[in-house]
Each structure stands twice: as structure tokens, then as C-alpha cells.
């Protein structure tokens, strides 16, 4: 059974494992821990109690920012990213947000297509925003009015 539930602190190690396997520039444990405060809304996607993906977002006034959305590499291609993104948009609306922002690597065609399919539009570019072990990459800034 597929479920999306609030992230619990005890799930951080599972999230770190997924992050290390899937991300271009993986977050540190300290960075994840800093997102456990009340202004963030963080959720995990579980398939039969297996943690398969997650997102971390922050609300400031009437805007939300998606900081991280990741699906485990062995679970990609099953629509889990789309489900998480739809959940994020629903949560943002329920919290009174009118705008959602995100950044995505310029070369991440699959994520860009996912975001565009959900109604996000290109708003700008941040040069050399992502710093990974294989170099730097620009970020596309995308937004959506709710």
C-alpha cells in the first residue's frame, strides 16, 4: 500500500541513504536535521512500509519553497516523484500558500519535465548553483501560482 506521511526524525538515516544514492550534490545529515523545525513541511512516501522517497519544503508567509524531492534509484519510474509533487502542492494550498518555488539542475531533463507537467514555469537561472563531485551546474528557478 502506498502512503505519504510526515517525516519522522528516526527516518533520517533512511533518507540519508537514499540521498547519497540519488543526488548530484547530496545533503549532509546536519542539513537534514536543520529542516526539522516547524516552518518546514517534510513528507516521506512509503510503499508497503518501505521508504521510497521524500520531499522537504519550507513555508514563509504565503509562499512555499521545495528544497529537496528524491525517489530512491531502484524505485524511480513508478510515478512516485509525481505523487510526492502533487502532495507538496496540496499541502502548500492547505497551508495558505499562493506560490511554490523550486530549483532544479539545468541538465535534469526528467525533473524539469515533471515540474512543467505539474504547472511550474521557468522564472530564472542561477549560474554554478550546484556544486558536486563532478563539477558545478546551473540551477533553473521554477515557480507556480496556486
Give the CATH level 1 class.
Alpha Beta
How many DSSP H or I helices? Answer: 4
* Series of H and E elements: EHHEEEHEHEE
Low-pLDDT runs of 5+ residues are none
Number of domains: 1
Please identify, by name, the CATH architecture.
3-Layer(aba) Sandwich
Strand content: 35-45%
Q: Which structural category fits the helices and strands? A: alpha+beta
Q: Biggest sheet: strands side by side, in what order?
A: 1-2-3-4-5-7-6
Query: On the 0-100 scale, what is the average pLDDT?
Result: 93
Which word captures the global form? Answer: globular
Helix content: 25-40%
The CATH topology is given as Aminopeptidase
CATH superfamily: Gcn5-related N-acetyltransferase (GNAT)
Function: Acetylates the N-terminal alanine of ribosomal protein bS18.
Protein name: [Ribosomal protein bS18]-alanine N-acetyltransferase
GO molecular function: protein-N-terminal-alanine acetyltransferase activity
Main location: cytoplasm
Amino acid at each position: 500500500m502506498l502512503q505519504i506521511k510526515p517525516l519522522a526524525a528516526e527516518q533520517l538515516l533512511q533518507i540519508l541513504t537514499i540521498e547519497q544514492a540519488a543526488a548530484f550534490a547530496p545533503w549532509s545529515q546536519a542539513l537534514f536535521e536543520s529542516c526539522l523545525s516547524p516552518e518546514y513541511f517534510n513528507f516521506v512516501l512509503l510503499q508497503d512500509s518501505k521508504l521510497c522517497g521524500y520531499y522537504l519544503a519550507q513555508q514563509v508567509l504565503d509562499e512555499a519553497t521545495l528544497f529537496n524531492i528524491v525517489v530512491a534509484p531502484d524505485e524511480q519510474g513508478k510515478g512516485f516523484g509525481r505523487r510526492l509533487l502533487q502532495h507538496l502542492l496540496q499541502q502548500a494550498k492547505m497551508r495558505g500558500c499562493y506560490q511554490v518555488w523550486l530549483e532544479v539542475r539545468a541538465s535534469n531533463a526528467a525533473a524539469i519535465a515533471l515540474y512543467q507537467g505539474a504547472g511550474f514555469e521557468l522564472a530564472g537561472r542561477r549560474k554554478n548553483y550546484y556544486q558536486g563531485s563532478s563539477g558545478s551546474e546551473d540551477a533553473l528557478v521554477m515557480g507556480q501560482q496556486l
